[in-house]
Each structure stands twice: as structure tokens, then as C-alpha cells.
Write a structure and sequence with these properties.
- The protein is about 50% helix and about 10% strand.
- With about 450 residues, the chain is an alpha+beta fold.
- The strands form 3 sheets. A 4-stranded mixed sheet has the order 6-5-7-8. Strands 1-2 form a two-stranded antiparallel sheet.
- Belongs to the PrpD family.
- It comes from Pigmentiphaga soli.
Length: about 450
């Protein structure tokens, strides 16, 4: 007989799926996502808001169970999950799976939680890899099965906590009943709205961190025998009732055969994914020839969904980096004027460049209601002589429809690993990349960061 509740069915999948039953493509995708997430987190360890909280948590101390990436410190597993997830989200450079039903950054929650627990319990690389596959599967499935309209919760956090709980439960070797209770405990801790995205505040980069930490705690409490709601998703006052409605038929479609995290996109630009098609369109225009901003009128057309997250007037007065990451005006202005959009372009001094700011604020934002939740963008330029040119980009660079190649992924990882609070030398960065590539061969997951973190 099939398990009776949604939580129980998901739990049976997480606890009962054998390594041999995991498709090679799902494992390869988990390794690819792990490298990308670890790399962007490494670069994010020096981003505004991260050093301050790291100092607080390292000073607080506790059992040295898991590594704080690029810090040379160890803290309790929950604290490590929290800090490392925040670093992974800080530059908005982490992978994202975007569908018409919404976007979710699964691995920036799942990897920090899973690696922290794996270090604590001495799991093998194969056990860690399996936990990553199943944790990301839970997050992306819940995201793909969500119903419209969005209620304003930050999906990465409220779905990510379930994936973090799943990955931690798998590593702690919880049975299906205990894993089900971990999901129930997680529902009691789900949080994070899109308000920090809209207001461009630093706490946005901690939304995923709260989920990673809480997911680990959920599994730890379940391991200690704490019970929770069995109908965590579908019950009265459950997840679907209070947070975001979902469709169980979609949630379980292809369970165990298809792993939707395989379609996760790897970002080309360190910015909210809603900016990426506009950035790419602007870069194509810039590559065609120099952009003379004098007398130039610029208009970007986006969907209502994109407008909600990145369409507000550019205002870097409070938190410049976050403002840049969530502004289509700044994104287009920087891409047109500089002919690039990389980590250097979201550094505060670059964001506060007066010339870029003036140009950005003059860019018109047009919202096409017919576009709905599309991430497409059109950037149009009209010169002072009346000539006009435009470029339209339908798909986010790095998405399954427009993927990056292996050379792009390796170059991004190498670049990011040589940045942050404790940059790695090129040889060290390549060593870490090689370890990730053979993750499931490691006898102990702690070998992954040995001598590097």
C-alpha cells in the first residue's frame, strides 16, 4: 500500500531510494550544481553582510563539526549550513530552475546543509552525492508543482527547507517515518518572503540560510524522536493551505524516474535571474558597436513577474550591491556602458559610479501584461539621430534552453574560487574542482575540503 500522505510519500522516496537506482544524469547534475554552488559561495564569502555575521557565529563557537567555507574555522553543523548558504546566495550567482510556476535556487540551500551534516557524521562521498540528488529532487519537484498565483513567499526558502531536511535525513540514515516527521518539523520553521528582494536589503541573502539551518535542525530533531504533523502539506493549516498551493499529481509525476534538478540552469551573470535576458540583450547590442549614451533613449520590455522583482526605480542609497542585483535599469546600463556584467560590476564602488547611475535611472521600463511569467526581455535603443535598434532574448543564458558549455562552467568556477575572503591559488582551485568531479568516489566527504576550507 502506498504511503497515505504527501510527506510520507516523499519520505519513502528519500529514505528508500538506493544508490543503484539513481540515474547517472541525476548524479552528474548534482555534481555540476555542487561545484557551481561551492564556487559562487567561495566568492560570496567577502560580499557585504557575510563577514559581519560570520564573525558573530564563529565568535559564538560550539562543537567544531563542519567547515565554514573560505574561513579556516569549524562550527556546529547547523551554523555552518547557515553561513555557507548565505555565502552561496550573496552574489545571486547560484544555479536556478525557472519555470512558468516560479523559480527556485535549490542547491544553495541543499549543498550547505548536506555537506555540513556529512562532515559531522563522516559520511562517504557517495552518501553525500545521494543526499544531494534526493534533496534537490524534493525542492525542484515542490517548486514545479506549485500553483499560481504566487502568494509572496520566497520559494527558495520555503521549498528549500524541505530539500535541506531531506538531504540531512538521508545522511543521518533516518527511516521513512522519521523523515516524514522531519518534513513536518520543517513546515513549522518555513519562512522568508519576497519583501527583501523588493526592498533590496541585505537580509535577502540570508533567506536561503535560514532554510538550510532549519532543514538540518528538522532532521536532527526527528532523529531524536520528535514527532510532527503527518499531513504537513495537504492538511488543514498545512503548507498548501497557508503558504503556496500545489498540485500533488505534478509533485509525484515521474517520481524515482525523472529528476527535475537536471534542468537547473547555471548562471552566466551575478544577478537575479530576472535580469539575465535583459543583460544578454544589452551585451549583444554593445558587441555590435560602441554605445554613445549622449542623447540615447533606452527602453527595456519585461513581463509583470520580472517587473515585480527587478523593475522598480534604481536606488542604491541603502545597499548598493543588492540594489544592483535586483534592478533591470542598472543591469542594462552597466552592460551597455561597460560591455560586460561580472562580479566586478556589482561591487559597491562600481554600482555607485555616478555616470552609470544617471544612465540607469533614465532607462524606461515597459511591462507587457501579455508576457505573464516569462523571463524574456527586449532592449531597444533610439539614438539622437532617430535611428533605432533592438535585441530580444527569450531564454535565460545558462538555462536548459540556452545552456553554458563545460568550458564556461569550468572558467566560472575557477574565477570564483580565486575570489572571496580566502582566495584559492589556481592549483588549489583545480584540486577542489577535481574532488567535486569524483565526489562519489571519496571514502570520506571531509576529504572534499581537506586543506582548503
Amino acid at each position: 500500500m502506498a504511503p497515505a500522505t504527501i510527506s510520507a510519500r516523499l519520505a519513502a522516496h528519500v529514505a528508500g531510494t538506493a544508490w543503484a537506482d539513481l540515474p547517472s544524469a541525476a548524479v552528474a547534475a548534482a555534481r555540476r550544481m555542487a561545484l557551481d554552488t561551492l564556487a559562487v559561495a567561495w566568492a560570496g564569502t567577502s560580499a557585504p553582510g557575510i563577514p559581519q555575521v560570520r564573525a558573530e557565529i564563529v565568535e559564538e563557537g560550539g562543537q567544531p563539526q563542519a567547515s565554514v567555507w573560505a574561513a579556516g574555522a569549524k562550527v556546529p553543523a547547523r551554523s555552518a549550513a547557515f553561513l555557507n548558504s548565505a555565502a552561496a546566495a550573496a552574489l545571486d550567482f547560484d544555479g536556478v530552475r525557472a519555470t512558468e510556476r516560479g523559480s527556485v535556487h535549490a542547491d544553495s540551500v541543499v549543498l550547505p546543509a548536506a555537506l555540513a551534516v556529512a562532515e559531522r557524521c563522516g559520511a562517504t562521498g557517495r552518501e553525500l552525492a545521494a543526499a544531494l540528488v534526493l534533496g534537490n529532487d524534493v525542492v525542484t519537484r515542490i517548486g514545479a508543482a506549485s500553483s499560481l498565483p504566487h502568494k509572496g513567499w520566497y520559494h527558495t526558502a520555503i521549498y528549500g527547507i524541505m530539500g535541506a531536511a531531506a538531504a540531512a535525513a538521508r545522511l543521518l540514515k533516518l527511516d521513512a517515518d522519521q523523515t516524514m516527521h522531519a518534513f513536518g518539523i520543517a513546515v513549522n520553521q518555513a519562512c522568508a518572503t519576497q519583501l527583501p528582494n523588493i526592498e533590496r536589503s541585505l537580509v535577502k541573502r540570508y533567506s536561503s540560510a535560514f532554510a538550510a539551518q532549519a532543514g538540518v535542525l528538522s532532521a536532527q530533531l526527528a532523529a531524536r524522536g520528535i514527532t510532527a504533523a503527518r499531513e504537513a502539506f495537504e492538511g488543514r493549516f498545512g503548507f498548501y493551505d497557508l503558504y503556496q498551493p500545489g498540485e500533488p499529481a505534478l509533485l509525484f509525476d515521474g517520481l524515482g524516474a525523472h529528476y527535475p534538478h537536471v534542468e537547473t540552469g547555471i548562471k552566466r551573470f551575478p544577478s537575479c535571474a530576472c535580469n539575465h535576458t535583459a543583460i544578454e540583450a544589452a551585451l549583444r547590442l554593445a558587441r555590435e558597436g560602441p554605445v554613445d549614451t549622449a542623447g540615447l533613449a533606452v527602453e527595456v520590455t519585461i513581463s509583470p513577474y520580472v517587473d515585480r522583482l527587478v523593475g522598480a526605480p534604481f536606488d542604491p542609497s541603502t545597499d548598493p550591491q543588492v540594489a544592483a542585483q535586483f534592478s533591470v535599469q542598472y543591469s542594462v546600463a552597466a552592460a551597455l556602458m561597460r560591455g560586460r556584467f561580472g562580479v566586478a560590476d556589482i561591487e559597491p564602488q562600481a554600482v555607485l559610479d555616478p555616470a552609470v547611475g544617471r544612465f540607469a535611472r533614465a532607462i524606461g521600463v515597459r511591462v507587457d501584461p501579455a508576457w505573464g511569467n516569462r523571463r524574456a526581455a527586449t532592449v531597444a535603443l533610439r539614438a539622437s539621430d532617430g535611428s533605432r535598434r533592438e535585441r530580444h532574448v527569450e531564454h535565460i543564458p545558462g538555462s536548459p534552453e540556452s545552456p553554458l558549455d563545460d568550458a564556461d562552467l569550468a572558467a566560472k568556477a575557477l574565477d570564483c574560487l580565486q575570489a572571496g575572503a580566502r582566495p584559492l591559488a589556481p592549483a588549489q582551485a583545480r584540486k577542489l574542482m577535481e574532488r567535486v568531479a569524483r565526489l562519489d568516489e571519496l571514502a570520506d566527504a571531509r576529504e572534499l575540503l581537506a586543506g582548503l576550507a
